[in-house]
């Protein structure tokens, strides 16, 4: 599989990797998580709403996101088309930002005060689209292949006797 006809997925992967590496190298990870108290409510740092989707704060999240973008994002972009996939990514990220901010405000009393950095919501939206587009394997196809395998084993076993 390659990045042919998938420039947005390639750009997402390269941009996410570079930004996450630079955030780690320059030790500014603490600027990328989303926290209601004190950052947003007390210090009015609303810029965090937009920047927390730009980079992951640890390498394991980055690695999983890169694998998922390569294996799932590229086929979805090819299916949608580049412009539609780019629009989907932007709208998904904007809606996720609004919903995360609303969740922080509504569920603060229940203990929700912190959302880790990274575009995890975009990754999960792409996974959801993949589950809607790619059909599940049918049991009949699996059973048919198993019965053909059994039949070929039986015929080869009886012919050898």
From TrEMBL:
InterPro entries: Peptidase_S54_rhomboid_dom, Rhomboid-like_sf
Any one annotated GO CC term: membrane
The keyword NADP is assigned to this record: no
Single GO MF descriptor: serine-type endopeptidase activity
Annotated region described as Disordered, given as residue ranges: 141-161
Biased composition (Low complexity): 152-161
Transmembrane annotation, as ranges: 12-32, 85-107
SUPFAM superfamilies: Rhomboid-like
Membrane topology recorded in Swiss-Prot or TrEMBL: Multi-pass membrane protein
All residue ranges annotated as the Peptidase S54 rhomboid domain in the record: 44-127
Protein name: Peptidase S54 rhomboid domain-containing protein
Species name: Mycena rosella
């Amino acid at each position: 599989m390659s990045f042919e006809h998938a420039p947005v997925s390639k750009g997402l992967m390269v941009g996410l990797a570079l930004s996450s590496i630079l955030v780690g190298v320059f030790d500014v990870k603490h600027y990328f998580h989303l926290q209601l108290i004190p950052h947003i409510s007390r210090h009015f740092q609303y810029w965090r709403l937009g920047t927390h989707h730009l980079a992951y704060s640890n390498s394991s999240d980055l690695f999983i996101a890169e694998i998922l973008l390569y294996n799932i994002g590229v086929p979805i972009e090819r299916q949608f088309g580049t412009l539609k996939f780019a629009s989907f990514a932007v709208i998904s990220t904007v809606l996720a930002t609004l919903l995360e901010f609303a969740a922080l405000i509504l569920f603060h009393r229940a203990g929700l005060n912190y959302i880790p950095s990274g575009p995890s919501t975009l990754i999960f939206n792409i996974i959801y689209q993949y589950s809607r587009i790619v059909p599940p394997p049918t049991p009949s196809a699996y059973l048919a292949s198993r019965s053909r395998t059994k039949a070929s084993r039986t015929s080869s076993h009886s012919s050898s006797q």
